Amino acid sequence: MLNALTDRQRYQQLLQDAQCLLTTAAALLADARIRITRGAGHAVVRACTSGSYEQPPPRNGGGSRAPHAPVAILLIDDEPSFVSALARLLRHDGSTVDTAADGHLALTQLHEHRYDVVLCDLRMPGLDGRDFYAMLSQHHAYLRKRVLFLTGDTLGADSQAFLEQCGQPWVYKPCKAADIRTAIQQVLQTV
What we know:
Order of helices and strands: HEHEHEHEHEH
CATH topology of the domain at 69-190: Rossmann fold
CATH superfamily of the domain at 69-190: Response regulator
Structural class: alpha/beta
Distance between the termini: 58 Å
């Protein structure tokens, strides 16, 4: 009986070790994929109009983000189930998350709030990710390097060309939680 219990404990430990190993491997793979996609593109810097911001507007209280303040994220996507699940995950991680179903609604949010990271679907009705990024670059220049694109369009030549041209990282949908977390951390580290 004692041997059976010991064998069961070893088996459970082996399962836990295997799960940890798989999680680490997935995070490393996501990191490598993001590095490759970031390295393939070149950032495009556009001249800013008089209505643009080179520095982020201050948060409420006038200061910059405190060392342990939650990350403020704007999530732009037209798929309600994806938005709900991703927003729930990010909130669970301690972030504050606002959502918008298209680029027009997101621009309204940007006038009212300050964000640390913008997660943006590439293909949406109305103002899509590409046009949103152009508007963002003109009117909220400080956010250019804080955009992480989300896309399910893996074969579109136009989408691929845009992503390479803008130089911003992207994550393919559907994606794993570790992929999103790793990509957000990379965006935060590069600004």
